[in-house]
Design goal:
alpha/beta; single chain; binds S-adenosylmethionine; four-stranded antiparallel β-sheet
Length: 275
């Protein structure tokens, strides 16, 4: 186990869920399931999350009785995830690893990654290594689903500062943008109550052009690749903020017009009740 990832240390890992309390994980989970259904793919039995963080998405899979393992570069985030999965019958395996060191000891029906985790890879070559490794650990009938912030989104981010405050902490969040390289840096300064010290960490993400990602997925061997505007079932575009990719080793169903309409209505309903 080794990782270069120096963000998501204890001070931020312990407040991550509070800072992200507005994230609609229930809806995101339903969206992943809908993407599968949309393409005629059944629910998986064996799943791996890349960048599982504090396990917010994993617990939803476990709640549905689906085996899910988690990989993350931060042991402090994994510690939080391990606490959360204790009450489930299924025991996930956790891997404290960099994305570039995906274990090859198991095969999965679904590998997924959400909330910009793969944007932390700052070079396309590194993403391409991940795609090739995921291809190897997926069943031939399996599927790889992940989201990415686009190049246009990160290049167009506005620099500035935000403050998150709860009873037990203060977190200053500074956005720094390199528009030319589509690189978004977040500097965090965290102060905990009853603690005189400050903790600092830096997060860096790179945005990608979705068409370039499609080429890379195909180069890795994926036979069917689709991408959608995040949380919708409309074809994605480089101008979308975030896009979801669905890539399968084998050919999968391209939904017809009637199915498209049906699933769009279903998604509309899910958004109404879950967001
Ligand atoms: C924005 S968080 C998302 C966490 C989780 N997926 C969620 O939805 O809450 C990104 C996660 O990716 C992990 N990460 C970032 N770079 C990584 C790398 N190179 N290898 C492994 N994990 C990494 C971080 O430690 C963090 O837990």
């Amino acid at each position: 186990m080794s990782t270069d990832n120096k963000s998501y240390q204890r001070s931020f890992a312990s407040i991550y869920d509070q800072v992200m309390s507005a994230v609609p994980y229930d809806f995101w989970y339903e969206y992943i399931k809908l993407l599968l259904e949309f393409h005629g793919i059944g629910l998986p039995e064996r799943t791996l999350e890349l960048g599982c963080g504090t396990g917010n998405m994993m617990v939803r899979f476990l709640g549905d009785g689906i085996q899910v393992d988690g990989l993350d570069g931060s042991q402090d985030m994994l510690d939080e995830a391990e606490k959360k999965v204790k009450n489930f019958e299924i025991e996930p395996d956790f891997y404290h690893r960099d994305f570039l060191e995906i274990p090859r000891n198991k095969q999965y029906q679904l590998v997924y990654s959400v909330f910009d985790s793969l944007n932390y890879l700052l070079e396309l070559e590194k993403l391409e290594k991940v795609f090739a490794d995921v291809y190897e650990i997926l069943d031939k009938s399996g599927v790889f689903i992940f989201d990415l912030n686009t190049e246009e989104r990160l290049a167009g981010m506005k620099p500035g500062t935000t403050t998150f405050q709860e009873d037990d902490f203060l977190c200053y969040w500074q956005d720094i943008v390199d528009s030319e390289e589509a690189i978004w840096t977040v500097r965090l300064l965290i102060q905990k109550r009853n603690d005189n010290g400050y903790y600092e960490e830096t997060h860096v993400e790179k945005g990608y052009n979705p068409y370039r990602i499609v080429e890379s997925l195909e180069k890795a061997g994926f036979g069917s690749v689709f991408f959608y505007k995040a949380n919708y079932l409309t074809e994605g575009r480089p101008s979308d903020n975030r896009v979801y990719f669905l890539a399968c080793p084998e050919e999968v169903l391209e939904p017809g017009l009637i199915e498209k309409l049906y699933y769009k209505l279903k998604l509309f309903y899910l958004r109404k009740v879950l967001v």
